[in-house]
Amino acid sequence: MAAPTAASPAGQAGSPFAKAATMRDVAERAQVSVASVSRVLNGLGVTSDATRQRVLDAVEHLRYVPHFGARSLSTSQNDTIGVILPDLFGEFFSELIRGMDLAARAHGKHLIVSSSHDGADDTLAAVRSMRGRVDGMIVLSPHVGAANLADEFAGRMPVLLMNAGSTEAGRASIVIDNHGGAGAAVQHLRATGRRRIAHIRGAAGNVEADTRAAGYVAALGDQAPMIVEGDFSQASGHRAATALLAMPERPDAVFAANDMMAVGALLAFQEAGLRCPEDIAVVGFDDVPIAALVRPALTTMRVNIAEIGRRGVERLIGMVRAGPNAQGADTACEIVRPILVERQSTAAVPTARFNNG
Fold this sequence. Notes:
Elements: H1 23-30, H2 34-42, H3 49-62, H4 68-75, E1 80-85, H5 91-106, E2 110-115, H6 120-130, E3 136-140, H7 144-153, E4 159-162, E5 173-176, H8 178-191, E6 197-201, H9 207-219, E7 226-229, H10 234-245, E8 253-256, H11 259-271, E9 281-286, E10 299-302, H12 305-322, E11 333-336, E12 339-341, H13 351-355
Parallel strand pairs: 1-2, 1-3, 3-4, 4-5, 5-11, 6-7, 6-8, 8-9, 9-10
Antiparallel strand pairs: 10-12
Helix pairs in contact: 1-2, 1-3, 2-3, 5-12, 6-7, 8-9, 10-11
């Protein structure tokens, strides 16, 4: 194979050894200044249509790729959004990232996603790794302390908190009404005639798990709580359901703190020979895609996960564009109200069946 020659133009198509084109190469080919090339590529200042077209033609011919670091220095923006999640596994986070990615791409932005594994130290490490690389951050943490620390350590960078459990004024956030959603799930079960309603909760110390459990208890009325602990995984829902079946008085309904635990519970009940909803009803929370696919289809509290992700990115982009000293800065706490989606897993059963127990 022939060696590359000095005559090969920078970035010339057809030569795998060609040196990458620079902004100066683009300027020389377009017969304009480097400053004019920068204005066209960064969308700053005013250039004539003719100049803009010559620059774009030169960029295409030379296959010029703007240097990311240089561009961020000239514009003070990276066109990149950081996202810190407690986990990257599962349908909930997949849907959330999907909504974020669609919104980011619509605005010409990129995402950098990192996992904090629920810990404050990991959250801070993720924040530090993103500083200088992103224009703003979305932080989803089920632990109030970790979310607050992330906000503080971000400095002047815009931060939008998600599900941090706080509705206090003064910080941009999106929070699901976990208490109200849990209460609505229990009220639905009571309306279908169920009276021995158990709860499979998430891990203790998790803001969402704690709030949903509190909403369950508040909606029970005079019924004594029946609570078993899970960790939001399908396997933990299966274990919790097995424990419920071993109780002296079996529940006739279960409210699980998320859909994956509800699916695990459905499998455990089916393995035990129970019919759902005839013998035991089940309600989940989130409305992840699998909720409509299992049999019986799962009744759940819908929060439109992808839309929450989209909304978070839209708000953060607005904060970035406004700048840190903007008048009327976005500090609102946006509350998402879950909506009951009724499916087969909670179909009403004749009253006589409960009376004859």
